[in-house]
Amino acid sequence: MSAEMTTTMENDLPVAKTEREVLLSIQDLHVWFELRRWGFGHAGYVRAVDDVSFDLYQGEAIAVVGESGCGKSSLMKTILGLHRPTKGTISFNGQDINKLDTKGMRWYRAQVGYVQQDPFGALPPFMTMQRILEEPLIIGGVKDKTERLQRIRKTMEEVKLAPVEDFLEKFPHMLSGGQLQRIVIARAMILEPKIIVADEPVSMLDASVRVEILKLLRGLQEKHNLSVIYITHDLSTVSYFSERIFVMYAGRLVEKAKVQNLLRNAGHPYTHALLAGTSDPDANNAKTFKEVPPGEPPSLVNPPSGCRFHPRCSRMIKGECDLNVPPEFEIEPEHQVLCWLHK
Ligand SMILES: Nc1ncnc2c1ncn2[C@@H]1O[C@H](COP(=O)(O)OP(=O)(O)OP(=O)(O)O)[C@@H](O)[C@H]1O
Ligand code: SF4
Ligand SMILES: [Mg+2]
Which residues of the chain are modeled with pLDDT < 50? Predict the structure, then answer.
């Protein structure tokens, strides 16, 4: 993030002018998985991500919310370079990541750390903590063993697994869920990435350690000026953690806004359906997203025509919403909604 001080003509008071640098730019991204039926061959596509665009600024935390199966993990895995886009681009510092060669891709993967949802499944059971953390360093080309050990110690201290000696030789089954998630975070951080992608990072943990883990992530974000993409269902943690929020429905980002603006002035009927207790727009009082709003999520193989939410929407405009795909309407600065109600 670069910030400069300017003065206004009106009052000559210094004003902080913040110009943030775009770190990651997602344009027109489509991620479709081919469906093949045994004996029949091609049977269509699962349109997990469909026409998604956004910029992520350096040092910014964004949250992505949406019900199960809407495409959140597919979007994240494509950003991590684990899926190739069917169409569209992902640019990191202006460089299209899908045009990188093998060496370039290895470099890019080191720029994006991944914190999985399930710390119990994310770590290989027969490896010690030292080995788990050493592996990315070896792959990342850190040849010197002493340097590797130094970096492991430093990162373990950062995630507050100290004294380090107590943990280095332990296997995953010897640690608690919270300690395991700290190791997952250490593994994501060890190559000093610019971005952390955290996919429901605390949903599998006891309530007692969730806040500690979120505070740890927040602290690391501030200390290292990291950009964070955070997938969650928990609105109270969104407001704690993120500056902007993206609501995803059936492969599309149907609403994008600053967190407070979305809570105060949600523009999409799906966002309203997700928000539990919409009567209380205060982020500190609003607690959770409803996991499942009324009605069935649509098929991503044959998604509904027009607006994909129309079969579940109480405000559907017949002849418009069921026929025409809504474009992005800007209802206030930095607040976009895919909904014909804002035409
Ligand atoms: N590798 C794959 N091959 C085929 N289909 C896939 C693949 N990965 C995901 N899908 C499908 O894409 C759709 C979106 O899945 P995804 O895992 O991205 O959703 P999600 O929003 O992360 O859900 P959840 O909240 O349950 O984790 C689903 O229909 C899923 O079955
Ligand atoms: S475009 Fe129409 S169907 Fe879709 S959310 Fe808006 S009002 Fe509902
Ligand atoms: Mg997922």
Answer: 1-17, 277-289, 291
Q: How far apart are alpha carbons 153 and 164 in whole angstroms? A: 6
CATH code of 126's domain = 3.40.50.300
Ligand lying closest to the C-alpha of residue 75? 1
- Around ion ligand 3, residues with a beta carbon closer than 5 Å are 73
Please indicate, yes or no, if residue 72 is contained in any of the structural domains: yes
The finding on whether 57 has its CB within 6 A of some atom of ligand 2 is no
**Which residue range forms the structural domain that includes residue 281?**
22-35+44-342
pLDDT tens, position by position, 161-195: 999 999 999 999 999 999 999 999 999 999 999 99
Residue 185 domain-assigned (yes or no) = yes
Using the mean position of ligand 3's atoms as its centre, give its distance from the Cα of residue 76 in Å.
Answer: 9
Q: What pTM value is reported for the model?
A: 0.89
What's the 72 CA to ligand 3 centre distance in angstroms? 6
Q: What is the DSSP string of 9-60?
A: TTT--EEEEEEPPEEEEEEEEEEEEEEEETTTEEEEEEEEEEEEEEEEETT-
| pLDDT score, position 293 | 62
Q: Whose CA is nearest to atom 3 of ligand 1?
A: 33
Q: Does some domain include residue 88?
A: yes
> Ligand 2 pocket, 338 CB below 6 A?
no
Q: For the chain, how many structural domains are there in total? A: 1
Ligand nearest, relative to CA of residue 48: 1
Alpha helix (H) residue ranges in 202-317? 207-224, 235-241, 259-264, 269-274
Q: Is residue 262 part of a domain?
A: yes
Tell which one of 34, 45, 46, 82 to mutate to probe ligand 1, the residue whose CB is within 8 A of the most ligand atoms.
46
